Amino acid sequence: MTVTQSQPTRRHSVTHRLRVAAVEALTPDAVAVTFAVPAELAEDYDFAAGQHVNVTLPGGDGVRRSYSICSPAGSGVLRIAVKRIPSGVFSSHALTTLAAGDELDVMTPAGRFTPSFHPEQARHYAMVAAGSGITPVLSIVATALDTEPDSRVTLLYGNRTSSSVMFLDELADLKDRHPGRLQLVHVLSREPGTTELLSGRLDGDRLGRLLDTLLPPDTVDDWYLCGPYELITTARHVLAGRGVDRAHVHAELYHVGDPPPAVRKEAREQAVTCAVTAVLDGRRTAVTVDDPDETVLEAVLRVRNDAPFACKGGVCGTCRAKVLDGAVTMERRYALEDDEVEAGYVLTCQSHPTTPTLEVDYDA
């Protein structure tokens, strides 16, 4: 398979009901779910490696969950991985009840955790993942190896035990198919590895020693990090300490908790009563925000129930919009790269107006 990856052209995510084609066990606590995408929707569900979809149970509580696509770009296969989360409504359903033939409401792919691939490129991609953070990384690794014959990949993958490693066999198959181009390093925190270096948490000390021993940063063109907040912040710190340019470090987080009270308080203290105009699907809709606790997204949803959103935690980026006029303060912006913020993009689920008028464009 050869595919030149670029971001699929679409304005914002929309939802369609899709049939589940297969549910496969990955570990005792995780399954892969493959969707049957009808021919007339194939273009809508075309995706770039590293993107995600948002899934809702029809007739459920209306809460959306975001899951990364684990299949290679260009494969025509829409497949996600779901890992059990304590008290997780959708993950519990997926692991105990979901079966082939069921239907789910699935948003079209979104996200910018996406390398730009081209067959003539020769690059070294380094991946640092933990747990279910492997899901988008697997798609990126497979697509890179298939698309760029002169590129290579190094993957540092942290888990508790070998039995908890998602996609263990698929990663081994990739290694077998590309033995000289894929370096696969498993780090297990609760199971002895082949050396002390590979036995323990993937913390700052161990990551630093792995870089010094196996992965010199000056040999890497781009870094892709996916996992919990602590791993991402630690890896960024370690890489910065070794002179890696932040522009070459790309990250995607798991769900994170509420922002610190001080951050939330500061953002909301700056909020003002605002006349908001939202552009969505070419239509302009007006709404007033006069409650400092209300975000721009919450206000827009009062008048446009088709406004795109998923996690409402600043992680998935589904609610991304461009500020055309006015200004906001954001509680957090994990799903945005620095260049996106500089270009005027915001996460409306985290945004509070700081000017009397505001115009945001979801179509930009």
From TrEMBL:
Keywords: 2Fe-2S, FAD, Flavoprotein, Iron, Iron-sulfur, Metal-binding, Oxidoreductase. The keyword Amino-acid biosynthesis does not apply. It comes from the Bacteria. InterPro entries: 2Fe-2S_ferredoxin-like_sf (IPR036010), 2Fe-2S_ferredoxin-type (IPR001041), 2Fe2S_fd_BS (IPR006058), Beta-grasp_dom_sf (IPR012675), Cbr1-like_FAD-bd_dom (IPR008333), FAD-bd_FR_type (IPR017927), Flavoprot_Pyr_Nucl_cyt_Rdtase (IPR001709), FNR_nucleotide-bd (IPR039261). The keyword DNA-binding does not apply. Pfam families: FAD_binding_6, Fer2, NAD_binding_1. Its cofactor is FAD. Residues 274-364 form the 2Fe-2S ferredoxin-type domain. GO terms for biological process: phenylacetate catabolic process. GO terms for molecular function: 2 iron, 2 sulfur cluster binding; flavin adenine dinucleotide binding; metal ion binding; oxidoreductase activity. Residues 13-116 form the FAD-binding FR-type domain. Transmembrane segments: none annotated. This is Ring-1,2-phenylacetyl-CoA epoxidase subunit PaaE. It comes from Jiangella mangrovi.
